[in-house]
Fold these 2 entries.
Entry 1:
Amino acid sequence: MILDKQEFTFTIYTENQVGLLSRIAIIFSRRKINVESLNTSPSEVEGIHRFTIVIQESEDVVRKLARQLEKQIEVLKVYFNKNEELIWQELALFKVPTDIIAEKAKVERLLREHGANAVVIRSDYTVFESVGHREDIDALMEKLAQYGLIEFVRSGRVAIIKASEGFHKKLTEFEERQPSEETEENQVLDQKGGIFSM
Amino acid sequence: MSTLEATSKEATAKDNTKSLTGAEVVLECLIAEGANTIFGYPGGAIMPIYDALYSYQDKLNHILVRHEQGGIHAAQGFARVTGKPGVVFATSGPGATNLVTGLADAQIDSTPLVCITGQVFAQFLGTDAFQETDVVNITTPITKWNYQVTDAKEIPEVLAKAFYIAQTGRPGPVLVDITKNAQFQKVDFEPYEHCKHIRSYRPKPIIRNEYIQAAAELINAAKKPFVVFGQGVILGNAEKEFLAFLDKTGIPAAATALGLGAIPTDHPLYVGMLGMHGNYAPNVMTNECDLLIAVGMRFDDRVTGRLDKYAKQAKVIHLDIDPAEIDKNVTATVPVWGDCKESLPLLTKAVEKNSFPEWLEEFRKLEKEEVKEVIEPELNPTTDEMTMGEVVKYLNELTNGDAIIVTDVGQHQMVACRYAKFNNSKSNVTSGGLGTMGFGLPAAMGAKVGQPDKTVVSISGDGGFQMTLQELGTIMQNNIGVKILILNNHFLGMVRQWQELFMDKRYSFTNIDSPDFVALANAYKIPSKKIEQRADLKAGLKEMIDHDGAYLLEIIVGKENNVFPMVPQGSSVSEIRLK
């Protein structure tokens, strides 16, 4: 069963409500599912927040989790996607000694190859930023470790769904309708994965 | 609208605005929601609400319980027999944490509750102030919704939401935690507006015709269809619609423990209770049917036994209002997502009239086997020891299936569910999903308050009764006419049964001594009697039922009697044991 597990990214649209993070986190933790990455931010719709959560799980478990998440009162919509269905990025910051950067041309070249930009330059250290997939960032970190990497931090994943028309349109349609009206996703019997979303 | 009209409307609204404290606003909201009964216990952090309540006693009936757990179980009993949300007050800290068991119980059994807890002043939040606990985070996994109010202006909207959420869709418990400053704060209270819509919350969908047609096709083609129904029928007030469906399709139907009472026990198509201690026939036939129609039930593991061996031969139609329940445990061939009050009539219309006499006869054959092996010895024992089953049999004779039966948890619970007669919906109140010992007495108390004209019988074991027996004080003070039946086998019977069957009779800490229950009842001024001989049983039960007011009857039953049939844990439902 472990073999069935793969990386899934949840995109959860919620009301901006105190305590909701805890309510969402509990849905994962009570099933002993480790959250690999979590990012929360406002969405393009005012007052609506967007969670991006990455986990390793089987599709069956992920589908059930999505329904439990969507069942929460303040959750508007839950999507779950495989990596190939997403455009996603992570941001990393690297703190390296400035003297090494200045002296060793190889490091400068390395940073250029990885598209890293300087954010802060001080006499004692320089901070670079890099944006990309986890493997790209990991590769850069491994190399910088050889040159006295002082500190490293990486953000949670942010992701955009390739196929989605965007939630804004869906929300607008939803708000135009009266409560309890039927939904588009609820129509097709042979697409069970999508049936129960809002 | 003209400017004049608008100004006049504004003026009228202003005339209707009252300046009230947050505490008074809470009570006004409860009245506006039609909640006239509150179970609660005062304390420092909820004192402003209790102070306000002093002036509202003519409009709100507050019942002072002896422990917050008793209060919430009473509210559960009230909700289960009335269909209205039960309301509970508790103070902060220990008061609020004492609600936890009841909240978890209500969450898993889909019971609508609105719990209001006091909280320390907002400026003390997070400082470990006296009696401060983070009740919102503690109760998050066991509430349908919860919220902390720190500003009295929020109270009307939050309480309106709370009532709406508690009783719509799949019902459940909600908790509103109100800081003390918000209870004191003066605000303008405008005419109350009920909540009818929350943007992010969709209580139920409109039923899609595709579901109905696909389900009807399966039903029309089935040779051995079987209906399993749960509390969803009762919560959806869909009893009539369900009966109409059964009467047209002629399909045999079995209940989960919480589904009992949705149709009368003596309905010709009713074939018994499902599950671990359910009836023989419905358990065995689950693995024989070609179509399983699940109505408002959630395939609990106590019902399914081993999932990998559960109804594998059958196609499955699952009617449920909660989309998270569909495909959770058993994969549905056709999911009918919706309120069964709406989906059942559509389905009834779409199916052909039918009957399955030969298929039904297969259930009846197995039933005869169960009667011979289990039911007859249980109801008409030949030994001197009284059995729990024969007590329930005589209770049926006296109440004719019209009583509300509230049970605690254990052997007596299963015996009551198996043998009690239910003519009416909302007459079986038991802790199903959580299996909460101590639930019975306070829940019965709440049920009697909710249905004062009904005979309410609380059936407990000697173990569970001792968990919440302090509520005898509430019964005494409020003159609640609940009939209290204690089936005393001097054991924690269900655990002992498992120890006997699966742990070589190593009765580890399951023998329990009890106080003199009769003396205890007398201390609470509740008439009582102890029955030790079969010869006194009928008369004792009759005296209890006929008595005007609360009455406690202790009956000594066989020490090591077991509840059979039984599906041992980890077995398939068709491996059910008759002995």
Entry 2:
Amino acid sequence: MSQALLREIIDYANRANPYPLYEELRKTPVSHDGDGPYVVSTYYEIHSLLHDPRISSDAKNLKATGDDLLGDQSDEEGTTLPPSFLKLDPPDHDRLRRMTNRPFGPPHAPHRVHDMREELGGLVSGLIDGIRETGQLDRIDLVDQFAYPFPVTVICRLLGIPREDEPRFHVWAETLAASLDPDPDADPTQRGQGSMDARMELGMYLAGLIEERRKNPGDDMLSQLATADGPDGAMTTMEALSTSALLLIAGHETTVNLITNGMLTLLRFPEVLERLRHDPDLAVPIVEELLRYEPPVQLLPQRTTLSDVEVAGVTIPKGASVWLMLASGNRDPKRFEDPDRFDPDRKDIQHLGLGSGIHSCFGAPLARQEAQLALSELARRLENPRLLEDPPQYRQNSVLRGPRHLQIACDGIRP
Amino acid sequence: MTGAGTHDGSLERLKSEGRIVVVGASLAGLRAAETMRDKGFTGSLTMIGDEPYEPYDRPPLSKQVLLGNAVADHTALPRRRAIDADWRLGVPATGLDMAARRVRLGNGDEVEYDRLLIATGVRARPWPNPEEGALKGVFVLRTRDDGEGLQRALAAGPRRVLVIGAGFTGSEIASACRERGLDVTVAERGDAPLVGALGGVIGAVAAEMHRENGVDLRTGVMVTSLEGDPSGRVRAAHLSDGSTVEAEVVVVSLGAQRNTEWLAGSGLGAGPRGIACDAGCRAFDVRGIVTDDIYVAGDVARSPHALFGYQFLSLEHWGNAVAQADTAAHNMLSNSADRRPHLWVPAFWSSQFGVNIKSVGVPPMGTEILITQGSLAERRFAAVYGYQGRLIAAVTFDNCRWLPFYEQQIESTAPFPPPFSTVDRRAEGAKPLPADFPDPSVPTHGPTITLSGYSPADRKMTFTPGR
């Protein structure tokens, strides 16, 4: 069994700065190591595979190989919840995503995200006020005190999760996000059991909530998913469960990293931070460049070929596992000029940070708005902010990459 | 660098102090002008347009504007940069003197050029009987004024609207009428809507869309005459099957005519099918000799395409106008060795009855069609067209995210039928079907691509052996 390549991607030693490894990977656009997955690392190849209907997101199409790191510990098989639309192909994917989109975005709900702006602003102000009130400005953990609670509160409000239940989600979401991380050294049985238990508990909790919303619907998304009756009919209870679990987890573990990676990068480029302080509109291009430069989702490890597919001269056989290295594609010099430079003035920025094709990030409009607001407010209010630890301590996860803590200090907090 | 221009400095002189004239102040003309300035052209630039308006965008006219969701005079095209041009708006070009390098204008003015770009586009084909066409309540839809007039007529709540021709524009108008709750009849000479552009298999899906949305769709019929009331307002139309449709508004949507009449007698290779040019947008003269100072871009051009057997393609596509304008502008300011061909893969979109339709490639070249993803019955699918064993085009209904893949397949001359399986393949995608395009010698309403590479009937010159 030869899986050196995978081990390197997963290796925690590469977490703080995986980019030299990606540069090495790009020398071979499609790498294949023993019986491991086909690892695709260059921009154009990744982009074309994201639009390739011969590529499936449904794990059922994977030719089961006993050695596959992900094969046995698939976190959705054998549990109570069916796969979410993230792990389905059309037509089921399309139907569920469409139904989920009805209460969330255009054309049926064009105002949903926009109308949350004021509430988001209030949450950001409240959290920054909270930091000021602790009086401890010489050691702020930006993750625990800001970047984590903000999007978590937002996703709970959006779904209509009662506030007193929010802390319970922390535990479930973290367990499930961790299960996405391919870790060759973890005991698969133990891991599988842990994520299964978490899914079970989360599922039971959500089932109770959905049942209640069917009787007393509000205008939150959970109510709308539970009572939807559009041209596609209604979601089954199981579908509503797995969809809301997906939104909850995706809403937990990605925006946190976008905001944290963002602040880390801005503190490493203080001149950009200073520009943002005077020009909050700069948050829009900054967040786009961050999605290219430090994307919260580094790779997509769950694609499978339905046919033999030739990519950059390599034939990936039918039934093979394919890993799409989004973060590596984002730094491909064949696509981006001077790709390792953080440049918020970059004009040409069709990054892969939110994916592309039918599975492109569902929550993108919300994530962008959250990150723009969070970063511009932090820039405006923190006086002379600085990093206490660089690089910071990262989470284990190589797929959803981000600092576990981000220790900073500042001289004061502006009103 | 090679080419005479570098040696004698003529290209540099052209770029710094030359005179460039653009006839046609719409999408292609504007984008070309912007590209020229981007490339450092600092000479004089004249933009000639027969409409009094600065360049505006047309796609919204048959969609948002007709629904009353956008105002026609708010569809101005965004400017990518300042072009510092001498605008001659509201005055048409009426003639071209190729030898003296002069464009004649309708007001008697003449404008001299060193390089000329023709981007005069197309206009709506009018109702063939001018008296009937002049009845109040009879519309075509091409310009901003057309859009505004038709919008007002629809807002007044006519009892019934008749749309003549079910190409893309006609179908979009019918869709807008239904969305406004108006009764609408569509009369189409072919067997189905969109049949000229997408063939009979897809046409049948389009027909279902019309009918399910409450359109009174009549196919295989022609409107033979329009009848007015004593006040000169249209009241009814007579059809070739003997029936009569009473309507207060009639929209004539019979495709487009190329604006080339002003070039008659100029010696340029211009006719009803457009202006022939080489792959680098240089116009041909009537003898088939390429000019070096006259360029063509947009709907009025017809140019050979390497990817489609060097067929001369006339494309009425928004994206083609942009791409071709860019290539023409680049080539106008380049030495021969630096010129590049216009190799844009034809692509267009439409939105009707709540369905997003997109296509790439040249569907009318296809003889077979295969439903690769989704299902016709659900009106959510991707289909590919085959021509002599290769994949030549693709169309999607509410499924456009897969289109870049099919475009890549077309660009790499992939085989047809495709030898691979795809997500969402259904039983109906097991075997190719005849694409069922109407006989190309019978003109269809509003094809967005006209194939005009070779037609023996079109031979205009007489070959006289030398004495």
